[in-house]
Predict the 3D structure of the following.
Amino acid sequence: MAGSGRRSRITRDGAWGLGAESMWPIRVLVVQPSPGFVLKAVKEGFDVWAVVDPSRYDSGQLRLLGSAAKQVLAVDLGDLAVLDVLVVKTVRRNRIAHVLCRCGRSHGLRRQSMLMPGPSAAVRLLDRVDAVRSRHAERGSDVDAALDFGFFAALRDQDTAAQRSGVDDTEPRPRLHRDFSRQAGPAPGVPAVVVTTLTFEGMHQVVGVTATSSGHLLHPAPLTARQEADVRAAVTSLLDLVGYERGPAHVTVMLTENGARVDSARTWFGPDEFLSLLEFSTGLDLETELVRMLTDGAVLKPSTARTATVQFLRPGRPGRLVSVAGLAEASRSPGVVEVFFPHRPGELLTAHDAGFLLVEGASAVEARSRALQASAGVRVVVEED
């Protein structure tokens, strides 16, 4: 078996554990995974059952999944009841140890400790951050005040009371396995950072703090020691408060005059640009670290400390993609590490659909200067549909 070769066994209570007498690879079920994630899990010694909606993959991706996964199970993700039945049956029939589903649904599984992200109640609370922020913004209310810890404590208590009374709204607002949305972000003019964490058994490890704006990302974020401590404390305290125990989190924090305030939260990884930036800057492949975490609960410490930036390549307005020029030239510019543009001519884009350049520098100033220079010659041309 490739990778770490670690194995697992069944303990007396029927749960899966690690041990020298191991007989099987650890078995995981992943809902709507990328082929790359499945390949990383297999490399680390896991058997993977992939539950996928074939309509959301191209033929090449389906071939990769078929060659890497132990079994690929097709389902219409629009039918959540069928999805839940399939997950439960597959877990029981195949002695699955872990279920990874970015939507955070419980799927009707009794043993919540096998779910990642989880538990579902914590995922539900964190997902409400966006809804609460949007609702208060529409009303002209003080969003900072709305998102303080007292608010989340009240939500948590309401949620617990609802479950005890039998009125459990665990599943009415799932994220339905959509790709991570690129939203406009916090209010213009308010500095913001994204904190990326990995949590196992309630222990939160911050793996990156990234400065973010509408046009670029920068890692590490140029914060004072006090600011970074406040940001980290705000995020880990929030994760503790809602009872988040397992999985990644991607939390945007505003740096307001009154201190660090949570702006939005997702209980999974951020978009591709965050994964690429963090891997280059820290030396950690976060998807691989997530898989490894399932075996021993440990996350490696960052092995490097490089400064880098992501410069977005956006059309500026919605429309059908006509052409992209200048990518080859950009790839040869000083400091450019990666050029990523996944869209093809004829594809309908929103104003926020993007490719990006990943650019390194000896300092934040140099990285940003190089990124602006490299992106200056890139032209993304769209026409009205």
